[in-house]
Amino acid sequence: MSTSTTASVSTHILDTSVGRPAQGVAVQLSARPGREADWQALGGSATDADGRCKDLPALPEGTTHVRLDFEVEPYFLKKQADAQQDAPANRDSGATGVFFPEVAITFAVNPGEHYHVPLLLNPFGYSVYRGS
């Protein structure tokens, strides 16, 4: 049993369209001490080569809700540009942009518990879950 008075959060991103970690995605962490409280931006990080954010800020004491904001548009735009450069003959029908430019995940936390929240991502959908 943990004796910590704050919760902790970690995340990683898997690009399910290629079966690999999503590197270089900016992730912002916010928290609030109750449903009616204002969000407090705590800072952020970016995913490493394994798709993990290893240096997200600590949560303040009294945190009851957490929000992770994933900026996925730059990741997909870079991926599209790399694909067109590598194989211009295999371009799709000219579609540009990103269907989900941002992903915001909000969840409740309890003091002393760790919350690992992975993001499974592809160009036209995403899924999250509480991991371990």
UniProtKB/TrEMBL annotation:
Enzyme's top EC category: hydrolase
Domain Transthyretin/hydroxyisourate hydrolase: 9-131
Gene Ontology terms for molecular function: hydroxyisourate hydrolase activity
EC assignment: 3.5.2.17
Reaction catalysed by this enzyme: 5-hydroxyisourate + H2O = 5-hydroxy-2-oxo-4-ureido-2,5-dihydro-1H-imidazole-5-carboxylate + H(+)
Keywords: Hydrolase, Purine metabolism
GO biological process, one term: purine nucleobase metabolic process
Family annotation (SUPFAM superfamilies): Transthyretin (synonym: prealbumin) (SSF49472)
Family, as annotated: Belongs to the transthyretin family. 5-hydroxyisourate hydrolase subfamily.
Protein's job: Catalyzes the hydrolysis of 5-hydroxyisourate (HIU) to 2-oxo-4-hydroxy-4-carboxy-5-ureidoimidazoline (OHCU).
Quaternary data: Homotetramer.
Protein name: 5-hydroxyisourate hydrolase
